[in-house]
Amino acid sequence: MHSTDLAAVWLTLKLATVVTVLLLFIGTPIAWWLARTRSRLKGVVGAVVALPLVLPPTVIGFYLLITMGPNGPVGRLTEALGLGMLPFTFPGLVIASVFYSLPFVVQPIQNAFEAIGERPLEAAATLRASPWDAFWSVAVPLARPGFISGAILGFAHTIGEFGVVLMIGGNIPDRTRVVSVQIYDHVEALEYTQAHWLSGGMLLFSFVVLLALYTFNPTRRKPA
Q1: Residue 23: CB partners within 8 Å, gap ≥ 6?
Q2: Backbone angles phi, psi at 56, to 5 degrees
Q3: Running DSSP on this structure, what letter comes out for residue 219?
Q4: pLDDT the model gives residue 163
Q5: Counting Cβ atoms within 10 Å, is residue 202 exposed (0-12), middle (13-18) or buried (19+)?
Q6: Would you give the end-to-end CA distance of the chain in angstroms?
Q7: pLDDT tens digit string along 174-199?
């Protein structure tokens, strides 16, 4: 495997790890709110979170590019703070990937929170546990399968991104060129052997991820 391929693999793993950690921090309160709220805004927020499931990645990438560009609100803010432009940088890739993979983390955690029901939390309240204590000592442990599923799906989905990362990151070696873009480059250059190596690795990785998800996640096991 060529050094540029290894660099793309390393960058992809780094991106997926950072994005998954951020998604768990960002997605958990969103999932908790969606699972518990009776607000009329629940449908709106849920639809916004789920948008990446139906929107073409290039549409998301285009609007993120506009938003983070020199004339966009985020771009003007980062320029004013002396941070420069986010497009075609690794931080820009992280932000785009967080948006694109958000439903793959939020929805499994939300489903896990909803499956808990009210009784465990009411029992914790009778023992004088604060809502914060009940969340960490009752809700989070009971929702662990949802966190596992969300983390696995978020990581795997980030690994396989193409449209969004190409729109936001471009194709800069060692900075924004991830595995999916590297495969595209190999195919475009008719380097099918290198493309086979990376594509086969992605295929094997995807199979192992799904096998682990369906084998070890207790929420997906059939009752005895």
Answers
A1: 98, 101, 102, 105, 150, 154
A2: -60, 140
A3: G
A4: 86
A5: middle
A6: 46
A7: 888 899 898 988 898 888 888 899 99
Cβ–Cβ under 8 Å, residues 107 and 219: no
Q: Tokens 């690794």 appear where?
A: 90
- What is d(CA 171, CA 196) in angstroms, rounded to the nearest whole number? 20
Q: How far apart are CA 208 and CA 175, in angstroms?
A: 27
CATH architecture of 3-218: Orthogonal Bundle (1.10)
Q: How many CA atoms lie within 13 A of 37 on its CB side?
A: 15
Radius of gyration of the chain (CA): 20
Question: Are residues 64 and 102 in contact, defined by beta-carbon separation less than 8 angstroms?
Answer: no
What's the pTM value of the predicted model, to 2 decimals?
0.87
How far apart are alpha carbons 24 and 30 in whole angstroms? 10
